[in-house]
Amino acid sequence: MGNVYIGVNLEFVRHADKSFEAGVEKAAELGYEYIEPWVHWGRELLSEAGYYQSVSLLDDPYRMKRACEKAGVKLSGLSSHTALCKPEVSTEYLKQAIRFAAECGAPVVNTDEGPKPAWTTEVEDHVLMRYVLTEAAAIAEGRGILIGLEPHQQYSKSPDGLDRIYELVDSPAIGINFDTGNSYLSGHDPIEWLQRVKDRLVHLHAKDISVKQSEDKRGKVTGTPAGCACGEGVIDWKKVIEVCRSAPRDIVMSVECGTVDQAERSIKYLKELV
Predict the structure, then answer these.
(1) Exposed, middle or buried by CB within 10 Å (0-12, 13-18, 19+), for 172?
(2) Using one digit for the tens of pLDDT, what is the confidence trace for 72-88?
(3) Which CATH architecture does the domain made up of 4-273 adopt?
């Protein structure tokens, strides 16, 4: 039986034009115990200027570690999504994210299969994903880092599809980063799906979906970048927490919402349940 903790994905400050450090400080101020930062390859203007919360994998991992220690928060994982179907992009990116995670102290790197190439077949895509995950798992196993596969794109939008990706490589480093909102929007029951993967669960994206978004998008999309405030949508959080508590490992529920106000309302709601 695992413990359940509350964290937040730094998505919540993306539209606030704040730096990584500002996002960490705001998360701590709101009362979050864990954070899940974004990482990217290379260099780009907005994060370098302090207007975007993502951190370059070319930066010093201790920058992330020091910011967390200063604010009194911990890392639940890294949001390191990359197109597993495109090995020319994802192989080295994911391997570098794993090494970065090991150095900064993040136990999990989260990813999904990403948009597929326009010209490949389904069979070919799964061979490509197997290649990437085999290479990544070899790096992760020796460092004690877990790879969280998320339901988000064309193949992982169903329980069977996510399982097929998970089963491509037999490695203790590979687990599931379940997303409550993506699973719901793709047309499935998130509680039933979470129950199915709980023994492989390594991280959870706590994403609620508004009634309006549900009416407009459910069954038509495979996911969404961010949800509404937890407790203001369609997800049954009491049941989510109940399933997480029955998982074999401790689980951080990383809130995925789009604004600072939503993050504040989310933690107030979830703290009453956890």
Answers:
(1) exposed
(2) 999 999 999 999 999 99
(3) Alpha-Beta Barrel (3.20)
